[in-house]
Amino acid sequence: MHESIFEQFAQAFAEHAGEVVIGDGFAKDAHIGPLSNAKRVQDIERLVDDARDKGARVLCGGARPERKGFYYPLTVLADVPDEAQVLIEEPFGPIAIINSFTTLDDALSKANALNVGLAAYAFTNDADAMNKLSDGLEAGSFAINTFQASSAETPFGGVKDSGYGREGGAESLDAYSIVKSVMHANYSQVMA
């Protein structure tokens, strides 16, 4: 988030995130269901605690609710330092990270310094910024002004330490294919 609107945006985002209801995935009032297993919850707790211990601000969430099940609330972290584990490994859980940048080049540099690159998202009305980000971001998928980073017709997968190839689209078939060249002479000429 650009530094000129960082604090205002972070507080508004955290306020809305705090209204997200966790609960049974089939409950009509629940926005977020449980995580997949106890290890996933422990991993999210570890990442949030590590970020907090290294100086990140927890704007909402940040603690497992006292209820049965693999629940963890949507957690908003701000000012997360580069050495925090949540910026080194993919959390795959309800964590939103909001850090500030000064220039677009600064934002690109910070994003591309990460060792993972599954998907990236940007919200802007500036066409030049859209083009610069599209060309410069090191991510398997990039969504502009939307959270939809892929569809069934497009390949989806990460770069760097994210993912194992592509899924979706015709490109995903390449991951399951081995190209083989076969050369042979006309059988009747070989046997003569």
Automatic annotation (TrEMBL):
High-level lineage: unclassified sequences, metagenomes, ecological metagenomes
Domain Aldehyde dehydrogenase per the UniProt entry, residue ranges: 2-182
Protein encoded by which gene: araE_3
Species assigned in the record: bioreactor metagenome
Protein keywords: Oxidoreductase
Name the record gives this protein: Alpha-ketoglutaric semialdehyde dehydrogenase
Family matches, as Pfam families: Aldedh (PF00171)
GO molecular function annotations of the record: 2,5-dioxovalerate dehydrogenase (NADP+) activity
EC number(s) recorded for this UniProt protein: 1.2.1.26
Coiled coil segments of this chain: none
The keyword RNA-binding is annotated on this UniProt entry: no
